[in-house]
């Protein structure tokens, strides 16, 4: 909670956003977790021991390889949980306190904490539907950048 509030200026964002927008719904879900994370029964922190050395000027390659190695396993874990009636989401705010978390849990210094997964039982009757998505031709490009400027 403290890491989130420090990051957003000390106030919950949904209090300042217009009601009913997709952005407000997303932030409402995020801020519910900020307020209730301590009540979640299981917190999983997938860790990864990097095998590539860091090379000056190659930080993008290092990070992409690191997270490209851990997130397929995280996704598979999330899918397996779902088939058993549990839900989770990827969070990263605990990384503002990564050293303290590592010390508390005894995570060796040569391991990276990929994220934090709060795990809880899905409510009975929860139904899922496809998320709203932009048309494919608005998010896919071949041989050039076609996204928003900047």
What labels would you give this structure?
5 helices, two-stranded antiparallel ribbon, 5 strands, 39% helix, single chain, globular, 3-stranded antiparallel sheet, mainly alpha, 150 residues, 9% strand
At a glance:
This protein is mainly alpha-helical and 150 residues long.
Write up this protein.
It contains five helices and five strands. The relative contact order is 0.15. Helices cover about 40% and strands about 10% of the residues.
Q: Residue share in helices?
A: 25-40%
Oligomerization category of the chains in this entry = single chain
Please, how many helices?
A: 5
Strand content: 5-15%
Number of strands: 5
| Helix-strand pattern | HHEEHEHEEH
Which sheet architecture does the biggest sheet show?
Answer: 3 strands, antiparallel
| Helix vs. strand class | mainly alpha
Shape: globular
Topology diagram in text:
Elements: H1 2-8, H2 22-36, E1 42-44, E2 47-48, H3 59-83, E3 86-87, H4 98-105, E4 112-113, E5 117-121, H5 136-139
Antiparallel strand pairs: 1-5, 2-4, 3-5
